[in-house]
Specification:
It is a single chain. By secondary structure, the chain is of the alpha/beta class. Helix content is 32%, strand content 11%. The strands form two sheets. A four-stranded parallel sheet has the order 3-2-5-6. The chain is globular. The N and C termini lie far apart (40 Å).
């Protein structure tokens, strides 16, 4: 098992992926980037923060992003989330807009979504690292098999989860999910380029809670305070 696999929270380790050639190549690539002094986001200690915060048996909802924010201080290992004190990015502002429309919630003064993670919302990006100021720079470096394995495990081992797939990139992972066992919600991405083509008005937050409650599960408190 390479050094990168050893960073994965134990509950999420997939031996078949961790020992695979693509994951070895990814580990070699990231090691070389770090050794060369390339700035990567989020910081190394936060690459698997979302998985550490939400173990498999605790997952109720999966919100799937693409890759981490690539500006200084923005990414901290949770899709769409930024640390306290960091300006709320445009995509997250559109998420607030939909929460206000859907559930009447007042947008918070910050963009930290860890309160969702603590309730069982896995805020997973398809790619877990990015080079500074270079969006999607690691998209084809080998993260896809790992995050595919995360989605497949959840879809195959558990029942009655909610998967929110926003945008075409996230929706490709929908092929890994049995829709007779889970609730799959799809819409355009909350990016300013697409949010008004169907993200605003999708009702995903209320739909997720209705589904969870219909399956005897506690709803998510979507209000960020």
């Amino acid at each position: 098992m390479n050094w990168l696999a050893q960073q994965v929270p134990a509950a999420w380790v997939d031996p078949a992926v961790a020992s695979s050639p693509p994951f070895d190549r990814l580990a070699d690539f990231l090691a070389a980037e770090l050794e060369a002094g390339v700035t990567l986001y989020p910081p190394k200690a936060q690459w698997f923060a979302a998985l550490a915060a939400t173990p498999p048996r605790g997952v109720k909802v999966v919100i799937l992003g693409q890759d981490p924010y690539h500006g200084p201080g923005e990414a901290h290992g949770f899709a769409f989330s930024v640390p306290m004190g960091v300006k709320t990015p445009p995509s997250l502002r559109n998420i607030w807009q939909e929460l206000a429309r859907d559930l009447g919630l007042t947008p918070p003064a910050h963009g930290n979504l860890e309160a969702w993670a603590e309730q069982g919302v896995l805020l997973l990006n398809s790619t877990l690292t990015v080079e500074a100021d270079c969006a999607a720079s690691h998209a084809k470096r080998g993260w896809a098999p790992f995050t595919d394995a995360v989605i497949s495990r959840l879809a195959n081992e558990f029942d009655h989860l909610v998967f929110m797939l926003w945008g075409a990139h996230a929706q490709k992972k929908g092929a890994l999910i049995d829709r007779t066992r889970h609730c799959v919600l799809e819409s355009p991405h909350p990016s300013p380029l697409s949010a008004h083509r169907g993200f605003i008005g999708n009702g995903h937050f209320s739909k997720a809670n209705h589904y969870l409650q219909s399956m005897g599960k506690a709803p998510i408190d979507w209000e960020i305070r």
